[in-house]
Amino acid sequence: MITHVFHSTVVSGPETLVIPALKNIGEPVTIVFLSETRVQGGATGPVEYARALGHEVHSVPVRGRWDRKAFKELRELLDRLKPRVVHAHDVKASLYLMKAAQARPDFVPGLVSTHHGAVARSGIIRLYEEFYVRYVLPYFDATMCVCEGDIASLSRRGLPLEKLHLHINGVERPMVAAAARIDVQRSVRNRWKQAVEAIPGPNDALVVGAVARLSGEKRHDRMIHAMATVKRKLAPRRAVLLCFGIGAEEAKLKELTKAAGLEDTVFWMGYSKTIGSEMAGFDLLLCLSDGEGIPINLLEAGWAGTPVFSTRVGGIPDVLSNPQVGYLVDKSESDETIGAMMAETLADYAGRARVGEAYQRHVIANFSERAWLATLKKVYDGI
Question: Considering its fold, how many domains does the chain have in total?
Answer without folding.
Answer: 2
